[in-house]
């Protein structure tokens, strides 16, 4: 059964995103460009292909994991294709982890995410150890990531917590 059969994509109205299943609400920066589900799927597929490169086994594993993932939203400061040198983004993803009893906290999930990134074809650096912050009264474990070899260097922050058997991941890209 696909995760999208269980969890809702949420709604975005007047720059406020709300997800009933995961019980959270988030204000999106006013004027940011919201991507529809189709655009999110294309971006996710490109990202997975970039990480896997020519590794057929990694490609197959990533393809299988897509059934467990729900792309909740993706927003960019500027519309995609704008003539800018960088385009900050915020994305939210939920991945079913209920079948993985060893994943109890965000840092457990991020341990595996780090291993996946390290096994990929992109040059990756982790400038800090995983740390914890509180956002809206909820503890999130945070992993800082720096990607290179893609043209402009890219920095990401993965904010992760576990809710209702899902890893809820907010990815800030800049």
Describe what you observe in this structure.
The protein is an alpha+beta fold. Helices cover 23% and strands 38% of the residues. The protein is built from three helices and eleven strands, in the order E-E-E-E-H-H-E-E-H-E-E-E-E-E. It has helices at residues 37-52, 56-65, 106-119; strands at 11-13, 16-19, 24-27, 33-34, 69-76, 89-96, 123-125, 131-135, 138-148, 154-163, 166-173. Strands 4, 5, 6, 7, 8, 9, 10 and 11 form an eight-stranded antiparallel beta sheet that branches. A hairpin with a 2-residue loop joins strand 8 and strand 9.
By DSSP, the count of extended strands is 11
Shape annotation: globular
Oligomer: single chain
Number of helices: 3
Report a brief summary of the structure.
With 174 residues, the chain is of the alpha+beta class. It is 23% helix and 38% strand.
Descriptive terms for the model:
3-stranded antiparallel sheet, 3 helices, single chain, 8-stranded antiparallel sheet, alpha+beta, 174 residues
């Amino acid at each position: 059964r696909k995760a999208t059969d269980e969890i809702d994509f949420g709604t975005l109205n007047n720059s406020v995103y709300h997800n009933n299943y995961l019980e959270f609400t988030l204000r999106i920066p006013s004027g940011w460009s919201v991507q529809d589900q189709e655009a999110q799927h294309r971006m996710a597929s490109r990202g997975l292909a970039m990480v896997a490169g020519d590794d057929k086994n990694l490609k197959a594993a990533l393809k299988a994991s897509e059934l467990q993932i729900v792309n909740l939203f993706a927003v960019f400061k500027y519309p995609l294709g704008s003539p800018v040198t960088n385009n900050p983004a915020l994305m939210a993803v939920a991945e079913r982890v209920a079948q993985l009893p060893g994943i109890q906290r965000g840092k457990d999930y991020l341990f595996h995410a780090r291993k996946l990134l390290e096994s990929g074809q992109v040059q990756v650096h982790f400038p800090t150890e995983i740390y914890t912050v509180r956002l809206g009264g909820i503890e999130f474990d945070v992993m800082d990531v720096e990607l290179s070899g893609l043209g402009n260097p890219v920095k990401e922050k993965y904010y992760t917590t576990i809710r209702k058997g899902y890893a809820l991941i907010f990815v800030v890209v800049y």
